[in-house]
Design brief:
alpha/beta; 32% strand; Rossmann fold; globular; 7 helices; 7 strands
């Protein structure tokens, strides 16, 4: 069965630009579409897909069973705030249309900070309902980052087939 990859997901994966040895975390991985695009780019690296929906994780595991068997991909059913595990840190953490970062990220940002490597990067992608909301979302994310130890370093906006896209790229405050 073949299905079209949503362009917003392809765009996000292109910006994240996984390299062979990267360790990545996708927050809100859903059915594992982005994981399936990132895993083939990895050699010694790995990607962890995280989602609070058990059904989404089951679908992601099914879609990416080859990558999971190879050790390049793994999945955890958990909200970000409750992420536990081996304590490994990530080169890149990304989320596509996960609104918790602009609503109330107070419980999640300490987890991101703890799990992001010193020179790691956080990528937040949004598809607002209208282009005028991009700045509003960017401002809310920036406000939520206040005092978190994370800072937005770059903002990218693009229209994909007439649909507004927003990417906020952040890192640890140095």
């Amino acid at each position: 069965m073949t299905f079209a990859i949503p362009e917003r997901i392809g765009w996000a994966v292109d910006i994240v630009a996984a390299e062979g040895s990267d360790s990545l975390l996708e927050v809100g991985c859903g059915r594992g579409v982005a994981v399936g695009l990132v895993a083939p780019q990895l050699t010694s690296g790995r990607i962890l897909g995280l989602d609070r929906s058990a059904n989404a994780i089951a679908a992601a595991r099914k879609r990416n069973s080859t990558w999971e068997a190879s050790g390049r991909a793994s999945f955890v059913h958990s909200p970000l705030r409750d992420l536990v595990g081996d304590g490994n840190r990530f080169d890149k953490i990304f989320a596509i249309n996960v609104n918790l970062f602009w609503t109330d990220p107070s419980a999640e940002l300490p987890v991101v900070r703890k799990r992001l490597k010193e020179k790691g990067t956080l990528y937040l992608f949004y598809e607002p309902p209208e282009s005028g909301r991009r700045q509003e979302i960017a401002d809310k994310v920036a406000a939520g980052f206040s005092g978190s130890g994370l800072v937005i370093r770059k903002t990218i906006v693009k229209d994909v087939r007439g649909s507004p896209q927003l990417c906020l790229i952040a890192g640890l405050h140095r």
